[in-house]
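4Fe-4S binding domain-containing protein
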Amino acid sequence: MAKIKSHQGWSWVLLVAFLVLSILDIRFGLLGFICMGTPIYHAIRGRGKIHCSKYCPRGSLLGKFLQRLSFENEMPSFMKGKKTKNLLLGLMLLMFSISIYHAGFDVQAISFAIFRLMTVSLVLGVFMGIIYKPRSWCIVCPMGHATGLIRDFQKANTQGKQTNQDHAA
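Structure:
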């Protein structure tokens, strides 16, 4: 398999463009679906969390611009655990679902819901990156956690099929 090039050096531009375009015209908020869908796409294709390490615009922005501002503290261990990650993933899904439900079929309201979710997670990421290490958000990121869950499910499913084939032989 060919080595995949990292785009972490410049992908932050995509997040900034998303934010600026969405402020100028909220309908650009729909582009947030790409930001949310791309990691899931990679995970479903069997690429695991490659989006996090090679492509993620938020991780790129946090890593590039918070290096000099960060206090470089270690995150508390409870924040790194599965309970926290599951809680944050559930909270973000709930917040997003309620926002989309209330938006109905109004394109601008849906766009604003996505823009708000992306902005809130960025602000949280900046806050965490200053207090802890620059990419601390990446440790608890709901999209990263979701792709990890997909990867783990696929791995368990593949191992289960292999075990069944071994028993059948």
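Residues 20 and 136 are 24 Å apart (CA to CA).
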